[in-house]
Write a structure and sequence with these properties.
alpha/beta, five-stranded mixed sheet, two-stranded antiparallel sheet, globular
Length: 230
């Protein structure tokens, strides 16, 4: 999982603009608690608000549900904002060393001038020059739904990850160091599987009845019972 460079960030921006109609977005960021067995003599370091012990997986996801940046190993008691502050990615974000594209003018919003490229996160994250969080409150109008739809990308990626790898559906009993390696491995494998399926056409067989008719679904013949292969 190479560190994204300026051209990689530009490609991510184009993906969010095309799929989610969200301009200047370089990724959706969120944290996931990976439930583990409490290490010996760890006290409340790994104890989180869900009353379990966990490591924090902090991830930046693009519009195709690919993990572009992951940081694993934060204590479960830390919030998303605290994990971002303590991880190397958060330091680079605050220090301006991520090689993000320069500020640009958004079409249709020229009156606002140059606007920065941003990550979108939840309310647990701080508001920074390159990190956009939603307005607090429940009864909001305007463009808040667009922000929410862009943020859902990272939550969907976590859902795909958990559905593919059974280790995320139970308590992991290995040491925190081994757990961290396993989580990183699943993120890389997740990207491998996603890239194999992105852009793939449907595997449903179609057949045209004649040259003048549109393709239709092929009729399924009667099958014998317990014959999954056929």
């Amino acid at each position: 999982m190479p560190v994204p460079q300026t051209e990689d960030w530009r490609a991510i921006v184009a993906g969010f603009q095309e799929r989610w109609n969200f301009p200047n977005c370089v990724g959706a960021i969120d944290g996931k608690h990976v439930v583990i067995q409490a290490p010996a003599h760890s006290g409340s370091l790994y104890f989180n608000y869900k009353c379990t012990h966990s490591l924090v997986l902090l991830a930046v996801v693009d519009a195709q549900y690919l993990f572009r940046v992951v940081d694993v190993g934060g204590f479960g008691r830390s919030s998303d904002g605290g994990s971002l502050r303590n991880f190397a990615f958060g330091e680079s974000l605050r220090g301006g060393s991520l090689q993000l594209p320069p500020d640009t003018v958004i079409p249709g919003a020229e009156r606002l001038g140059l606007l920065p490229h941003v990550l979108v996160g939840g309310e647990a994250f701080p508001l920074l020059d390159n990190l956009l969080r939603p307005f607090p409150g429940r009864h909001l109008t305007g463009g808040c739904s667009t922000t929410a739809s862009a943020r859902l990308v990272v939550e969907c990626a976590f859902g795909i990850l958990s559905s593919q790898w059974r280790m995320f559906r139970r308590v992991i009993t290995t040491s925190p160091g081994v757990t961290e390696l396993c989580v990183k491995a699943t993120c890389v494998l997740h990207n491998f599987l996603r890239r194999k399926t992105i852009g793939r056409s449907s595997c449903t067989p179609v057949v045209a009845k004649s040259s003048d008719e549109a393709p239709t679904l092929r009729d399924a013949p009667m099958m014998g019972s317990n014959n999954a292969t056929r």
